[in-house]
Amino acid sequence: MSWDLEIRDVSHEYRGNVALNDVSLSFGEGEFVTLLGPSGCGKTTLLRAIAGFLTPRRGRILLGGEEITGRSPDRRPVNMVFQRPTLFPHLNVADNIAFGLRVERRGKQEIARRVEDMLGLVDLADFGGRRAHELSGGQMQRVAMARALIKRPRVLLLDEPLSALDLKVRLQMEVELRRMHRETGATFVHVTHDQREALALSDRIALFDRGRLVEFAAPEEIYRRPNSAFAAQFVGDANVLPVDLVPAAFGMAVQLGEVRMPTPPDPAGGTRTDAGPAWLMVRPESIRVSPVGAGGTSGRLRGSVLDTAYRGDVFSCRLSVPGVPVPLKAEVPVEEGVLLDVGADVDLAWPPEAGRVLPLD
Ligand code: ATP
Asked: Which PANTHER family match (predicted)?
């Protein structure tokens, strides 16, 4: 893959407050990358540095092999869509979209043609004559997308563009964003703190924690094989349980509360072999819960139901397990979950490959 956008050793502080700490990552041409992480982890700072709204204290930013670190925003083939679209209220939709090309003094015919293309791209073909205040939130965000894309930027930066929309519109806009990305071929760099949205949209996710890049991989990779307890919990809210790795007859075993189990096989071959404390990750949907003695599970791990919440297709349960200081989260299909009353004793099990041993830090 050829790298389009490269971030090299970038650090930034605001008056002693570290926002980005030695971040390096490269985006492929036409890739859809999401910068994900909790509030304050530096996502917006990096996006603003790519846009040219701020120059990082250290490090370099390259686009197509050319350094753009200190270049002003209007001299980069980069455009940005913000959380709340700022449309010109006195202009109609078509004129809002055309604005950037008018500034460039393009010919009337070219502008008309490109505006029409953009209205089609964002699925607003019949809305060209509407005023901004006559649009819904989702439609305004589509106009903002069209206005940003009409200049054919090489990189489109998206700063939480869906977060102000209600859930139904947001889900629909996710599908639309993917389509716009496919149809334009631009590199999309998207910022969100919504892990579900990041999983749904991205070719790769760059996960940040307190100014540092902690993981950069495809959604399935981060979800199934996170490299840290932080990533396991932030993406998909996995169980991360304190365990001890103890020597056993064949390699190492995992001691969880009062139960000893084999170390999960690591597909990457990176299973730890040294004894001591570690984390064990298990996704809630991998845990099989059944009433004690109902069969189907080994019955080695026992727990009791702390609470359950009905989610339509599953019950989300929290379970207490002797010797384990945190509750286990499990998702139980509704047809099985009706049997699980609060306080009921249950057997728990998961396939060995669903577990993952992670380092303490
Ligand atoms: P959010 O999801 O809340 O927008 P973020 O991950 O985008 O957060 P940034 O906005 O990049 O995070 O902020 C990173 C750190 O820098 C935070 O600790 C923040 O308080 C600090 N920060 C951001 N902008 C400024 C500023 N203009 N002056 C001082 N500190 C700032």
From this structure: SPERMIDINE/PUTRESCINE IMPORT ATP-BINDING PROTEIN POTA, SPERMIDINE_PUTRESCINE IMPORT ATP-BINDING PROTEIN POTA
